[in-house]
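Archive entry. Fields below.
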Amino acid sequence: MTNPTNPPALQPGTLRVIPLGGLGEVGRNMTVFEYEGKLLVVDCGVLFPEEHHPGVDLILPDFEPIRGRLDDIVGVVLTHGHEDHIGAVPYLLKLTRDIPLIGSGLTLALVEAKLKEHRIKPYTLTVREGQHEKVGPFDLEFIAVNHSIPDALAVAIRTPAGTALATGDFKMDQLPLDGRITDLRSFARLGEEGVDLFLVDSTNADVPGFTPTERSIGPVLDQVIAKAPRRVVVASFSSHVHRVQQVLDAAHAHGRRVAFLGRSMVRNMTIASDLGYLKVPEGVLIDYKKAKDLPDDRIVYMSTGSQGEPMAVLSRMANLDHAIEPGPGDTVILASSLIPGNENAVYRVIDGLTKLGATVVHKGNAKVHVSGHAAAGELLYCYNILRPRNVLPVHGEYRHLMANAKLAQDTGIPSERTIIGENGTVVDLRDGVASVVGQLDLGFVYVDGSSVGEITDADLKDRRILGEEGFISVIVVVDASTGRVISGPEVHARGVAEDDSVFDDIVPKITAALAEAAGNGVRDNHALSQVVRRTIGRWVAQKLRRRPMIVPLVIEA
Amino acid sequence: MTNPTNPPALQPGTLRVIPLGGLGEVGRNMTVFEYEGKLLVVDCGVLFPEEHHPGVDLILPDFEPIRGRLDDIVGVVLTHGHEDHIGAVPYLLKLTRDIPLIGSGLTLALVEAKLKEHRIKPYTLTVREGQHEKVGPFDLEFIAVNHSIPDALAVAIRTPAGTALATGDFKMDQLPLDGRITDLRSFARLGEEGVDLFLVDSTNADVPGFTPTERSIGPVLDQVIAKAPRRVVVASFSSHVHRVQQVLDAAHAHGRRVAFLGRSMVRNMTIASDLGYLKVPEGVLIDYKKAKDLPDDRIVYMSTGSQGEPMAVLSRMANLDHAIEPGPGDTVILASSLIPGNENAVYRVIDGLTKLGATVVHKGNAKVHVSGHAAAGELLYCYNILRPRNVLPVHGEYRHLMANAKLAQDTGIPSERTIIGENGTVVDLRDGVASVVGQLDLGFVYVDGSSVGEITDADLKDRRILGEEGFISVIVVVDASTGRVISGPEVHARGVAEDDSVFDDIVPKITAALAEAAGNGVRDNHALSQVVRRTIGRWVAQKLRRRPMIVPLVIEA
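PREDICTED_STRUCTURE:
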């Protein structure tokens, strides 16, 4: 990371922007806007852990820069209802419940359902595209954008210091299922008026061309379902209302009924249909418990687990650990992306299902998924219609941010006006010029079981060593006054070798090393521990060619 | 796995085939053929560990079925020089060095270099396409096949019981760089003569269509290198002679010299050029130490590390942990596949290089890789030209084997003549009919540091728990006769919580539980350990909502 540098005190007439998450990573999107002492937060998401975060449940943005200023927050705008934009809201509201949440109908309904599990009832302000709201010193205008969840909004933030436009996640499907396109007319109007800072989704900036329309998936689903001889299971993201809509329509067209499987699928689709985002054809839904009385060729199960998550419905089906046991003639469609890092888990599920006799249709062998993010070609349209004065690419790994900045420059925005930031980069906007004025030192906040922010990177390093190499503990009880060994050394190992007899050789060596140390007058517990650690560490490295964690436990009695 | 069933004693006039590895997995390919008491082994490879094999270096086939019969082995045919086909040879030869290795010139040269590191000098028989060899009761004929390494061979195995054909890994590039195509004329001739059992590469059986020609990569490399303003680094597999050839040619065409980086790249390319498989244009190679004296636009580095392996050259470059430090204007080409499971590691490398200012060209944004395996369209050609009586798909996960069997059936081979096997499936061939007659119970043999086969699945389970959750150990010293606590309980944890004071609450509870047990006359160490385990285990589950490994250590003094 760039070396931390404290930003100067915020000058009057200046808009300060600090991304707390989402830069250099895909997830935990969160940006803080400050003007005249008041703070506006846009999004508050989680990051899902990778293999170098063993055991961690979720990763939150570091709230440190706003922790002492909770009373200054005038609102949290949530651009859409995906976890990487709303998942950290419960943890923010646990600091104070007074912050109003601002978002579209569907977005707030999904957040409220999540908050209910944390027993939090939030203050909310429901907005829709075209709406203006004055929140503290910030004049907000909400603009429709198209994404892989309905009712997503971009937000224009006007202050006397200038206008920022944050896209949230978006793409530019020109024929979306709900007819609600990304509102380029408003982008054009804002561009005419002058946008000083454009915070723009970078997720697919390194993908050439254009994201195909969601509508192209319908005929593929239709064809697969038409030909399926027995049961059909479709797995997808539980918030992808339009994907589910196309499954419902295809099932309906072929006289099949649909049962939702998986807690989040049931919950989200209930919300989406209650609010009118999901149009359920008359009589198509059926409770999954009743579905098994239907003939096999009359049912489609719509389930979670498309990323191979071990506890989700699809993995459990593949392991015959679910009431629905797939078999020959059944068809399983993974209508989803394959998020990097999940490949092996997903392939294990595909393999398990294939082994049970099911036919598995997935991204690798059929066009059953399109992305939710604007590819390079779409982003060029945006830059050309908006012509922003300054650009801050957000939402993406470094390579995505770089690719996005390059696109901006290709449309004529000077390179000194495209800012590659990190989490904690402090950007001040004044007189139409955005400049980096500081860099905060932000960390990762791990949710681990019931603990939030207690597990540190040192603990994760310990876990990685333990997970790769196991540990060896050596217990010795010594007489406090003489240093004489009363009991032990006992050597216990886990994850190291099949049986502890491999350590028989080392016990006399430890005893001898301790006797020598005691003879030299060493009494201190820590020093004796070091003697044990050195003796066994050297032996293990040589004999086993491994470096397990060595845990010497010298007890005085 | 299918329940183990012992096969019947092998009848005279029957050919028995047992795959020991490579079925249900991509790697550790090894098949044993038995006729009249003699054994022929085809390939002997390793499997690379995935994330559920933490700390493991390599996975070997289970040699158990041949361990007591080493003297019966008449030879090991190695179809080509990739690790998943030759990597376990040193471990087999450690059991006995008397087994001759049979393979092409390049294959044996690569195996010999590997064996040298293990200080083993093998008996070898070099063969080439068209050659026949009688090895024990097996009449072998070697047939040229095209793959992502030169000099690959299929082997026809003739016995009085019938003829088997094992493809090894192959594809059917019709315009390969070296002009050495998969010899379909010989396939046709064998087909006329009658092939009873076809063991066929399944790796790409679920990929529709045809693998593009290796030759299509040359112009892309040429164009990228032509436009590169400064240094170029190309990373690829260190055995991919033709890929390296195209890099040499492109570099040469643009007046650049090439330096090899990485131990395996240097070693393999020295072998390949010594044997004439790599044609090095006059004066193009340069030692990497001298390369840095060249102008930046006159050099191409050809390196290892295309899979994001942390210790390989490319990862070290990305971490500025290598003498060559990439910077703005440099171009890095990852001319390689992205093996599932390596995505995050590779993306971290791409990100690191991008951050340093390098332009990264990879499979995701340019056509710089083609597969080494026949896709579905090519396999159909094979089946149609060969028309085998029985098919045993090999080399692949279950879904690949299934897809391959389906292709065989599409060409008219009856489904009862396509065998979906597992490692250890015993197939007997007699009178033109192949049947499954048993299933051996085979395991995974882990190479872990200096140990081979000592680490068990239980150890790996321990490592996974330790890696996800950490451990808590509780040490108590008790008086052997009274059960009274003399010292402790001391609670130590690693990978669990930031500081051990979180356990202050539990110490008095453990003391009380032990006192109660002692009062009830419990003296047994194991029983007292269980008291400790239960007390702290319950507390941790409730208080931290985690399940770390609990290690109670009750010591008598």
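CURATOR_NOTE: Chain A has three domains: 15-209+371-447, 214-362, 457-556.
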